[in-house]
Specification:
436 residues, alpha+beta, 2 domains, 6-stranded mixed barrel, 17 helices, 50% helix
Length: 436
Amino acid sequence: MFQYYFLLGLRSLRRNPALTALMVLTLAIGVAASISTLTILHVMSGNPLPHKNGRMFVPLVDNGSLSGYTPGNASGDKQLSYRDAVNFQNSKMGERRSVMFGVGGAIEPQRKDIGAFTSQGLAAYRDFFPMFETPFLHGQPWSEADDAAGADVIVLSRKLAEKLYGDSNPVGQRMTLMGFQYQITGVLDTWEPVPRIHRIIGSGAFGSEDSYFIPFTSAIRHQTSHNGSMNCSGNREPGYQGTLDSECTWMQFWFEMANDGQRGELQNYLDSYAQEQRKLGRLKRNAPNQLFSIDEWLVHLRVVGNDNKLSAWLAFGFLALCLVNTIGLLLAKFSVRAAEVGIRRALGASRSDIFRQFLVETTVIGLAGGMLGLLLSFGALALIGMQSKQLTVAAHMDWVMLAMTFVISVAAAILAGLLPTWRACQVTPAIQLKSQ
């Protein structure tokens, strides 16, 4: 019976093509507006490593000065000092851990057709690569011995490797970066996590990918300047060593635990560490020590702002307005078929039969609106992506949102069809037969 009603629904689309096209277009516009904004919100708030959400954590300790501090006020700092970051790195806590900070400098290609250019990268430990599940096209990360020795080794992004060496495998070759010779140990395959949870501070959650990765210890040994934000709440001695010895915060850190049940263990370590540091005269604010999972970190840094959420609500409000118009059009469409309903009722069709038939017809309209809405959504996302490079990364539809388009469209059509369908079921057969 459903198949029969479905075929009737397809035929009914041709009865009044102008009215049908207006209903489908109204529904499609509302769906496109809501889906395009919902897609942006979905991508921006997504977790690129959902299976590690209960295992990966960002630690924060408040090392600010007491000057101007009010107890109970949360610190706005979201990074660590060099001292705390290195202590965490040497703690051996968890399965993996890595301190990191952004670097940038000049690259001097061996090719004569390419001049020197600047590029940004990341200084980190070897654990960074398996922690964030970076895919390798050639080679592998540097070794733990390279971390310990501060060796001049480097991992390139695929984009940078192709720019410098074409399609050839550059592993084992040496390149000049910031005036020093680095040996290439690996080349990453295309890696574009959205959002970029490891680089939200500095280059942004939707910024461009890092072109290279070097050992943290090598960057410190060469006194490499950091490429990112720094917050200094106290005095700092001049020079690079003065920055390392200061309470300036400019480094980021991630722990990866062996399983999801070790958050309490890590929190206990963090509290014990802070207590020991207070005995040394540091962390004078005695503020709570914080741990953030991936999802909590995204919320803490407000990757999805209130403006994005408001845009989504406004889009769904527009969809509701489109539904009101669709209800009016369906009432007009079904009212002209009162005679047909009366004859069917007289021939023995029940009100439930009429209800099912008209509801299936509205579902057909929803499917048509979903297909057109999907095309309009792709167009809207393309226009949004043209506004900025960051929006280009976020303005793409995955399978979840593709399915959501049809779910929202059909659900909206059924919701809009409830009142017109109920009205159609109230037709009195005797009155309709007398009028014929």
